[in-house]
Amino acid sequence: MATARQKTAARKNAEKARSTPRASARGGKRPKRSPSSALSTAAQNRLAAKDFAFTRKRKEPLTDAKHVRNAIARFDQVEDVTDAERDRAWKKIRTAAKKFDIEVSAESWRELLPGARAKRR
After folding, report:
1. Using the 8-state DSSP alphabet, how is residue 60 labeled?
2. In angstroms, rounded to a whole number, what is the distance separating the alpha carbons of residues 77 and 87?
3. Which of 5-9, 43-47, 51-55, 114-118 has the highest average model confidence (pLDDT)?
């Protein structure tokens, strides 16, 4: 249960929010939804296949440090790829990690998640 002090603060915040017009209502610009470093679909479509970890599927772009970290984090989520493709993708990710000075502790993609092979079909 909320205390009387919390309820008072919530009422003040709600009144303040209602009294302050939104930027879009004043004709102002809306904030961007995605960070500036995110690739748009059009930008991703313009990339060459070699710029992706999984070239055939065009999955996990390796264009900057943020995308390389994301590729490592989501490596086990890519579906319908062979172990040979995973080996090639891991090699590309490790190369990109060196390029962007990212430390990768796993030597093989098999070390990322012990149950990763059980999840794939």
Report:
1. E
2. 15
3. 51-55
Query: Per this entry, what is the length of the chain?
Result: 121
Tokens 């991703």 correspond to what residue? 44
Look at residue 119 and tell me whether its pLDDT is greater than 80: no
Type of residue at 32 = K
- Cβ–Cβ under 8 Å, residues 77 and 57: no
Say what the pLDDT of residue 60 is.
93
66-71: list long-range contacts, CB under 8 Å, 24+ apart.
66/37, 67/39, 68/93, 68/96, 68/97, 68/100, 68/102, 69/102, 71/96
Rounded Cα–Cα distance for residues 100 and 9 (Å): 46
- 3-class DSSP assignment, residue 106: coil
Q: Where are the alpha helices (DSSP H) in 20-82?
A: 41-46, 65-73
